[in-house]
Specification:
Elements (H helix, E strand, L loop, with lengths): L4 H15 L8 H8 L3 H13 L3 E4 L5 E4 L8 H8 L23 H17 L3 H4 L3 H7 L5
Helix pairs in contact: 1-3, 1-4, 2-3, 4-5
C-alpha cells in the first residue's frame, strides 16, 4: 500500500497545525518553507482540509489557518480515506477492470483483506498520537518550544 504525496502533505499540514497553539494562525508560506514543499501544493491541500472540516481558514492581512478540531478528534484513517482518491489497489477493484482472471482469482480477496487491515491500523490513531515526540518534532520544524 502506498499513499499519495497529497495525503502525505495533508497529514504533515495537520501535524504542523497540531503542534501550534490553537489561537495562533499559521500561513501557507510558513508550512511550505518548513517542509520545503511547493506553496501551490500546500494551498490545494489546505483548501481540501478546510472543505473537510479539519482546518479553519481566516482570510485577510493577518489571516492564516488553524485546526478546526482538537487533535484527539481527528482520526488518521478518516483523513486518509478523505484525501486518497483511489484505494483500488489492483485493476480488478475498478468497475471497468479487464483482468481475465477476475472470475476465479483469490488475489482480489487477499488484497481487500490487506487494505482493510491497513486502514484498521490507521483508524486506531488520531492526530494527537502523531504529535509525539513533541519536542523533537518542534526542533525538526524549527518551532518554538
Amino acid at each position: 500500500m502506498r499513499l499519495t504525496r497529497y495525503t502525505d502533505y495533508a497529514l504533515r499540514v495537520l501535524i504542523y497545525l497540531g503542534l501550534e497553539e490553537q489561537d495562533r494562525l499559521v500561513t501557507i508560506s510558513e508550512i511550505s518553507e518548513r517542509y520545503a514543499i511547493s506553496r501551490n501544493h500546500i494551498m490545494k491541500v489546505v483548501f481540501e482540509l478546510g472543505q473537510l472540516g479539519y482546518v479553519e481558514t481566516v482570510r485577510g492581512k493577518n489571516g492564516g489557518m488553524r485546526l478546526a478540531q482538537a487533535p484527539e478528534a481527528i482520526n488518521v484513517g478518516r483523513v486518509v480515506r478523505s484525501t486518497e482518491t483511489d484505494l483500488a489497489l489492483v485493476e480488478c477493484f475498478h468497475p471497468d477492470g479487464q483482468c481475465c482472471l477476475a472470475p476465479v482469482c483469490t488475489l482480489k480477496g487477499a488484497i481487500e483483506e490487506a487494505l482493510r487491515a491497513f486502514m484498521s491500523v490507521l483508524d486506531r490513531y488520531t492526530l494527537q498520537d502523531l504529535l509525539h515526540p513533541e519536542q523533537r518534532l518542534r526542533e525538526l520544524l524549527a518551532l518554538p518550544a
